[in-house]
Amino acid sequence: MKGATLKDVAREADVSIASASRAINGLDNVAEEVRRRVLEAASKLRYVPHGGARSLVMARTNTVGVLLPDIYGEFFSEIIRGVDVAARARGLHLLVSGSHGDINEAVAAVRAMGGRVDGLLVMSPFVDSQDLAAVLPLNLPLVTIASRIGKVEQGSISIDNFGGGVKAVEHLIDQGCKTLAHISGPPSNFEAQERRRGFLEAANTALPGAEHRLFEGDFTEESGYRGAKAFLNACAQTGEPMPEGIFVANDMMAVGCLLALREAGKAVPDEVALVGFDDIPIARFASPPLSTLRVGVFDLGRRGLELLVDAMERDSLSDGEDRESGEGIVVSPELVFRDSSRRRAPPA
Amino acid sequence: MKGATLKDVAREADVSIASASRAINGLDNVAEEVRRRVLEAASKLRYVPHGGARSLVMARTNTVGVLLPDIYGEFFSEIIRGVDVAARARGLHLLVSGSHGDINEAVAAVRAMGGRVDGLLVMSPFVDSQDLAAVLPLNLPLVTIASRIGKVEQGSISIDNFGGGVKAVEHLIDQGCKTLAHISGPPSNFEAQERRRGFLEAANTALPGAEHRLFEGDFTEESGYRGAKAFLNACAQTGEPMPEGIFVANDMMAVGCLLALREAGKAVPDEVALVGFDDIPIARFASPPLSTLRVGVFDLGRRGLELLVDAMERDSLSDGEDRESGEGIVVSPELVFRDSSRRRAPPA
DNA sequence: AACGACGCTGTAAGCGTTTACATAAAATTG
DNA sequence: CAATTTTATGTAAACGCTTACAGCGTCGTT
Fold first, then answer.
1. How far B265 CA lies from chain A's nearest CA (Å)?
2. What confidence tier does A151 reach under pLDDT thresholds 50, 70, 90?
């Protein structure tokens, strides 16, 4: 039941284990005849090299570990795509794991990756991610995506969430919204807090003294739905009008929001204008198509991996101790103006 | 620059390497005092066990390999979610790889996984996947998802694509469509061919003698757009009316189709009714919401992994040679009736 | 007081590879 | 044709870890 080992192949081909290894790895100092016999034996026995043994002796795995909050869904999937494309271009494999928002799971995942990867790409946008830093192997090159982890990383790529929040508000104001509201992400999420901060600062600047409704969601479609419902109910009770513009902290929630608004018979964008965040693929297909702050999620993944590869090369070349904390790229989200915020008559 | 090894930890804690190992793995035959010293040394040195070495000696990795055509996008992402949920429930890790439709890449991926995983979950819906079977390590438990790979697998879970095609046609007929068309997936894709076959058989049965327009897409949104355009152009040229019902072989293409139809000012569903396939999350949000054949993509992944775990357990228990080809589950897609095919006045 | 039982610890073998080094055979040279 | 280089092959060590086994105190029991 055990798989064939190199020893088996060598015996079958009647050569030494060293020659077998050389033949299989395509080194040139092997007689053609021997190579033929070895390859034949290998395929006959369905030999597959033991990656663990190999990485043990070679001290490299050609694999990078990717740790994300989740490994599915529009957003993370798109990150993975970026990472995948960049990784395959360099012949690297991916060990992907999701932490499900749980620091302990993240720690467990990191340990499980230990010794199986040459570098780590981590996204852990939680406010308490510093705990993660404490267990990260010192020797592994590390790049973070949109995470505040500490100063252990050799590179990082992050999003200007605050600036995005500001842009969203400015856009809604441009479109003539006189009252604003915000559906935020969870308080435990660093990014969500930054977006909220951006919203508040810009909203207070543009509409001094005004009250802005806030609802705390958790980045799921369902919570966006609840958020819109909450605003609708509150307005029904107090008799106040609905906010004219809502900045929703991610597109998934904005989609839920759209659903609730449609159910309630509120016209988007004319009664309520909506701006999301992320520009996940689904945003284009929502009805009306969703205005949003494009982050370039694909590029987040791609450039993250590139940064990591750089760090890995630096690391292996200069076997030195000088591990300077690498560059920190910040990308600015860009407004994508679609129908959900395109008001017919912005009462200038 | 190298990471700390167990030996380093042992030296630091002033114990033997064996005791260090025992302490770290939580065996009970270690003195409390020793355990404390070891754990302290380990965290001081940021020790992370070398997974390769571990799997080498233990002959297991607690990791399963997942090979999909791609590892992103609505469909595969949803599969991964199912696999992830089931895997984490069992404490298994995931080594994920995409083959990008290239058999050689798939082969490379399988080799790269060799010796790093305890089992393999493979989806390779290509007509020439038999080539893959030839390189799969004999000893690894293998489960396939929606793939015709040969008889090497210990289990498989697949979709009744033919039946789904039939259901789609029957539904369109029910809705009063008198003329039908089909946008198919690529000819190299086994599943696409089955759906097409289902369409043709049912269409010929329901509408004997009629011609059905066909367009060959490649499962991308863009090709769906092209397909609809092709139908529109052909009809404009010949003066014939548009087909009243289109069965599109997956939802992504159906979304593209919807876009083209909207651009052309064709009313969906009243002028043209549409049915997709898969029920990916985006289907609900299209406008109009897309009727489709739900496959339960999440469950495909989840049950696939469960099958694999079963096979792995069988494998390790009965160390026997009896590897019977495991069960083959077939799931039937179920019609989800949304607005894209809900015709006001089915002219009975 | 001698004995076995028990609990903790260390020594060393072995997991499947790669690769430096030694060796043997073949090819090149003067 | 002997001396020398080149080329092909084999031997054995090393990678970091787990674990069978042996060693050795410490007890409790006759």
1. 16
2. low
